[in-house]
Amino acid sequence: MNQAVALDQAYQQVEGNLVSDMNGEKVMLSIASSKYYNLGQVGGAIWEKLQSPATVHEVVAQLTEEYDIDREACEQQVVRFLESLLKEGLVKAV
Amino acid sequence: MKKNWETPELEV
User: Fold this and answer.
1) Mean pLDDT, contiguous 10-residue spans, chain A (94 residues)
2) Pfam families given for it (chain A) (predicted)?
3) Strand intervals (E) in chain A
4) Mutation site for B-interface testing, chosen from A11, A30, A60, A68 by largest number of B Cβ within 10 Å
């Protein structure tokens, strides 16, 4: 079951992941689980914004400035992506 | 000019 993501909760990267840029996409190795992940281009942008604590609202506000996407759709997709990151233990609520 | 959006997905 996916963990619920709250819009006003701050999230941050969990330490211990090696991240590389591959053809514009972010690829990550989790040292803890020995799993490789592809975050893609937009996922990589979201990942970078979580270097320091940020809420969904803050991330969405930045993304809608940079990308051609409306706020509501962006918010829904960011929440789903964050749920995946939480499930894999790659980000944490702070 | 804004960048093209792609649905973010975490692929294992």
Assistant:
1) 80 86 80 82 94 94 93 91 93 92
2) PqqD
3) 10-13, 17-22, 25-30, 35-39, 54-55, 91-93
4) A68
